[in-house]
Amino acid sequence: MKTAVDIVVITLTSPLHVGIYENNQRIKTFQTTEQTSEALPLLFRDILKEYQPARLFFARGPGSFMAIKITYIFLKTLSLTLQIPLLACDGFLFNEGNPIRAMRNLYFVKKEGVISTERFAHEYAQNFSLPEVLEESYFNHDNEPLYMLPAV
Q1: pLDDT tens for residues 138-152?
Q2: Could you read off the pLDDT of 55-69 as tens digits, one per residue?
Q3: What is the DSSP code string of 36-87?
Q4: Which of 55, 105, 133, 150 is most buried, taking the most CB atoms under 10 A from its CB?
Q5: φ, ψ at 5 (rounded to 5°)
Q6: CATH superfamily of this structure's domain 3-91+129-138
Q7: Domain range summary for the chain, segments of one domain joined by +
Q8: Angle between helix 65-82 and helix 36-50 axes, rounded to 10 deg
Q9: In the predicted model, is pLDDT for residue 116 greater than 70?
């Protein structure tokens, strides 16, 4: 019998992160620099051989428009197919609240709960990480993507 687990996915920037959680504790991590459209199906093929997903969690944005779109469609389809919940939060949870690159020197920032864009003279590292402990209270069923495309 396969172990029931929760799965957390972060695809806002490269590398892509997928975490496997049992009893809210991270037990396994996957990371790849492959494109989201190529990586997700292959990662989940392997994950589904070993585990039975109970819930899916993901960072719904802001970040790479295409990665967010592909991730949402992929996970929403999996959620419907397996009849399991899909929960989401914004990506600032996974990078300690630091700015998230929109394009060139334009970044998404979150101040007092509001996400907007700002230009910075220096570059911010795009370091995202999976938590050791899954805090369910940070996620909700509002899983529509945060596309937030900046004006060009």
Answers
A1: 999 999 999 876 555
A2: 999 999 999 999 999
A3: HHHHHHHHHHHHHHHEEEEEEEEE--SS-HHHHHHHHHHHHHHHHHHT--EE
A4: 55
A5: -140, 165
A6: ATPase, nucleotide binding domain (3.30.420.40)
A7: 3-91+129-138
A8: 30
A9: yes
